[in-house]
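Long-time lurker, first post. I've been practising inverse folding by hand and with some scripts of my own, and I keep getting stuck on stretches where the structure tokens seem ambiguous. Below is the full token string for one chain I'm working on. Before anyone asks, I'm not after the true native sequence, just a reasonable design that respects the backbone. If someone could post their per-position residues I'd love to compare against what I wrote down in my notebook.
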């Protein structure tokens, strides 16, 4: 792994104070539209789906409504399949993959299971192509109570009534070249630490849960995605992003301990997707297709495994 000790904001070895966070925020700008790229698509959902607002984020003179989408005809007692996208707003295919699934794929499943989708958890970060929210907080390290990130707190509150029935959770993410060029250096600077970049893997991989490995499930998702795009090989040390691989294209994190979105439920089957959009072999549509393949692969496996 490579490392760098400098970032344009802050002083090496010293965590940011509020003035540094304000300086960081002043450097951010709107680069795309949540209204046009997300809300307009959710306005034309199939008739079999329904959306509900679960909160709003009032950030930097903008108000962002947040939505959950589910079966219009909810099946009492049926297992729930949860999909989350855009916990990190810059990870485009997570958001667009969730939306694509809703528009074109969800209707294949809603006669037997319940679908619950939060397509864009962090809309300000989506518009500014960021990992953090405006307070320099990472929502994907904030899924615990009380949460420092309003994005995380609102979603956890919205999902609280469903937690006992969620059987599967697929959290859609990307690993990008900007992880090394911007986001990891910014993280190290914010926390007053030395930055250690990881080797960016060329291809798709999954992050499972250290305490709930489910290897057959993870393999089924990898197999489904491999029909769409290539799976990331390990680096020369047998690792992906510095973590030893457990299965082909699969590493594991302690999701609850790290406050990850994938750890907020007690679902039996949990995985986090990681698409690599900067690959020479990838296109935006291919990245979206990979996310959809992961969702479908996960649902198909669980339906078969649990005889639903």
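-- Answer (accepted) --
I ran through it position by position. Result:
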């Amino acid at each position: 792994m490579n490392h760098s000790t400098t970032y344009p904001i802050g002083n090496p070895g010293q965590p940011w104070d509020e003035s540094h966070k304000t300086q960081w925020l002043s450097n951010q700008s709107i680069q795309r539209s949540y209204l046009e790229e997300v809300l307009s698509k959710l306005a034309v959902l199939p008739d079999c789906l329904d959306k509900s607002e679960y909160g709003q984020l009032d950030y930097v003179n903008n108000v962002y409504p947040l939505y959950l989408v589910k079966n219009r005809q909810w099946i009492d007692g049926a297992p729930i399949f949860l999909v989350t996208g855009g916990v990190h707003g810059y990870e485009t295919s997570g958001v667009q993959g969730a939306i694509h699934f809703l528009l074109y794929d969800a209707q294949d499943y809603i006669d037997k299971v319940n679908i619950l989708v939060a397509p864009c958890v962090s809309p300000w970060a989506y518009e500014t192509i960021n990992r953090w929210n405006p307070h320099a907080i990472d929502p994907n390290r904030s899924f615990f109570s009380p949460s420092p990130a309003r994005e995380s707190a609102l979603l956890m509150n919205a999902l609280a009534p469903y937690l006992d029935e969620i059987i599967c959770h697929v959290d859609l993410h990307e690993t990008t070249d900007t992880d090394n060029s911007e986001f990891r250096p910014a993280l190290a600077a914010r926390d007053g630490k030395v930055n250690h970049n990881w080797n960016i893997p060329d291809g798709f991989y999954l992050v499972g849960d250290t305490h709930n490995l489910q290897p057959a499930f993870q393999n089924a998702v990898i197999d489904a995605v491999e029909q769409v795009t290539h799976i990331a090989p390990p680096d020369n040390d047998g690792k992906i992003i510095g973590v030893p691989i457990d299965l082909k294209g699969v590493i594991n994190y302690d999701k609850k301990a790290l406050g990850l979105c994938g750890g907020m439920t007690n679902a039996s089957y949990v995985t986090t997707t990681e698409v690599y959009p900067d690959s020479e072999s990838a296109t935006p549509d291919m990245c979206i297709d990979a996310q959809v393949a992961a969702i479908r692969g996960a649902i198909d496996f669980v339906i078969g495994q649990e005889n639903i």
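A couple of notes from the structure itself: DSSP finds eight helices and twelve strands in the chain. The CA atoms of residues 2 and 197 lie 5 Å apart. Happy to go over any region you disagree with.
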